[in-house]
Amino acid sequence: MRSYRIRSVRSGSITALLVCMAISNFFISNDLHADNPERIKHITVYREKGRFGGWPANHGIWSWGNEILVGFSRGYYKYLGPDRHAIDRERPEEHLFARSLDGGETWSIENPAEKGVIVPYGAALHGTQPPHLIPKTPLDCPGSVEFTHPDFAMTLRMLDVNVGPSLFYYSYDRGKDWNGPFILKVQQVDGIAARTDYIVNDKLDCMLFLTAAKKNGREGRPFCARTYNGGESWNFVSWIAPEPRGFSIMPSTVRLSKTNLLAAVRRRESNGKWIEIYISKDNGNNWRFLSKPAPDLGEGNPPSLIRLTDGRLCLSYGYRAKPYGIRAQISSDNAKTWSNPIHLRDDGAGRDIGYVRSVQRSDGKIIFVYYFCDKQSPERYIAATIWDGK
Q1: Contact indicator for 199, 207 with CB cutoff of 8 Å
Q2: 3 state DSSP class of 46
Q3: If you average pLDDT over every residue of the chain, what do you get?
Q4: Which of 142, 205, 226, 274 makes a 20 to 30 Å CA pair with 34?
Q5: What are 129-138's contacts with CB under 8 Å, separation 24+?
Q6: Reduced to 3 states, what is the DSSP secondary structure of residue 25?
Q7: Does residue 198 carry a pLDDT above 80?
Q8: pLDDT tens figures, 161-173
Q9: Quick one: pLDDT band at residue 82, thresholds 50, 70, 90?
């Protein structure tokens, strides 16, 4: 933890001493690190010997009060060097869910492939097709998806980060059963790399925030799409950010008002890796750069942006440089300015961590779910951190 020293003052300078003490207390109270167990709790969601658990940000998170559902990938652990994901690419990768009924305190694991849906196709992103499972053929969505159903959830998946294609599924029973897969087509856009980021506007009206291939066919550039007919067709709305030399990907979006939206995006260029925020004041039709809350993330990580019940914003991400860990930042002025990083944990054993998804539960505490590796064993696993948000 950082320490703030109070310089010595001459006898009688009581006022100066009190001012220094106040400043010191302010900084200490606002400098939260992982050694504050009364405010932070870490929980293992999924951990298995010889297995790799990863990338909740690629799958999505949903909540209904204290019921939380999060998706993740399960593969087989294999060390491939310090700069690569430790997953065996020659063995099957599965897409699983973890569900909590008590606000993230305990979790159970569900495999939707047992019901014949959400099975990775062919050579998945990080592994191969589970040999005993036959995926359903993707179809065009007939439309009339009821996005405002009280138990609705939608998940979006990609088959290739550069060229797509991408698929989506939806559920009316909190992710126990899924309809799909449906082919995700957006007019005017090729090479869609879909992760789960959407905002429901009305019964048949929903906005997606996705990544498309750049003009050279490489990933990527974030954009907004929208349907007015329950998913039968998706229309291109706007580019969220200019086309970069490197990439600008994986938006995480919140609504501030009827017209104002904020999108956090993951950015990588030759001179660094960071997170930046864009704002739209016309419901997604146009966007402009607003702020850069995390200017250095080591090797880079995607953002998770949520709006808290008190109106503040919470941004979280994995920090892929020493000390490896999970961090969060708070904004009280709609992303114009941000707090210093809050160190939720600093005990990571390497760079292969992060991909956070987050939600706020009914008592106001914030749940962060991510993949992690520590010094106890080499396997990557899914963890959750519960923070009081204060």
Answers
A1: yes
A2: strand
A3: 89
A4: 274
A5: 129/92, 130/92, 130/93, 130/94, 131/92, 135/181, 136/180, 136/181, 138/165, 138/167, 138/180, 138/181, 138/182, 138/183
A6: helix
A7: yes
A8: 777 789 999 999 9
A9: confident
Rounded-to-integer distance, Cα 338 and Cα 340, Å: 7
CA dihedral 29, 35, 41, 45 (to 10 degrees): 140
Residue 104 region, left (φ>0) first, then alpha (ψ -120 to 50), else beta? left
The pair of structure tokens assigned to 142 is 């007939």
Tokens describing residue 250: 């994986």
Token pair belonging to 11: 């006898």
| Residue range 286-319, pLDDT digits in tens | 999 999 999 999 999 999 999 999 999 999 999 9
Per the CB < 8 A criterion, the answer to whether 171 and 177 are in contact is yes
Please name the amino acid found at residue 136. Answer: K
CATH top class, domain 39-387: mainly beta
| Residue 203, CA atoms < 13 Å, CB-side half-sphere | 1
Q: Which residues contact 343 (CB under 8 A, 6 or more apart)?
A: 32, 33, 34, 325, 327
pLDDT tens digits for range 252-275? 999 999 999 999 999 999 999 999
With H, G, I as helix, E, B as strand and everything else as coil, classify residue 16.
helix
Give mean pLDDT, residues 225-251: 98
> What tokens were used for 343?
């160190």
In this structure, what token pair is assigned to residue 327? 């961090």
Do residues 346 and 323 make contact, with C-beta atoms less than 8 angstroms apart? yes
Query: 18 by DSSP, 3-state: which?
Result: helix
